[in-house]
Amino acid sequence: MSAITDKIKGNWNTIKGRLKQEYGELTEDDLTYEEGLEEELIGRIQKKTGKTKEELKNFIDRL
């Protein structure tokens, strides 16, 4: 399990709030978290924001 997965699992409500602040186009559906599907979640956010996977992982890691 990666460090980013651990961070998402442990702090999702905080991370979700910051993502919504940073990327207003994200909806609740875009940010629905299911354990074990972290990569799918990152992919949905990536598709909606146009950011790379690395950019999003770095954003989350900085929180």
TrEMBL record:
Q: What PANTHER family is this protein classified in?
A: UPF0337 PROTEIN YJBJ
- Supply the SUPFAM superfamilies for this chain: Hypothetical protein YjbJ
What family is reported?
Belongs to the UPF0337 (CsbD) family.
Q: What's this protein's name?
A: General stress protein CsbD
The positions making up the signal sequence are none
Listed Gene3D superfamilies: YjbJ (1.10.1470.10)
InterPro entries in UniProt: CsbD, UPF0337_stress_rsp, YjbJ_sf
Origin: domain of life: Bacteria
Source organism per UniProt:
Sunxiuqinia dokdonensis
Q: Where is the CsbD-like domain?
A: 6-57
- Which Pfam families does the record cross-reference, listed alphabetically? CsbD (PF05532)
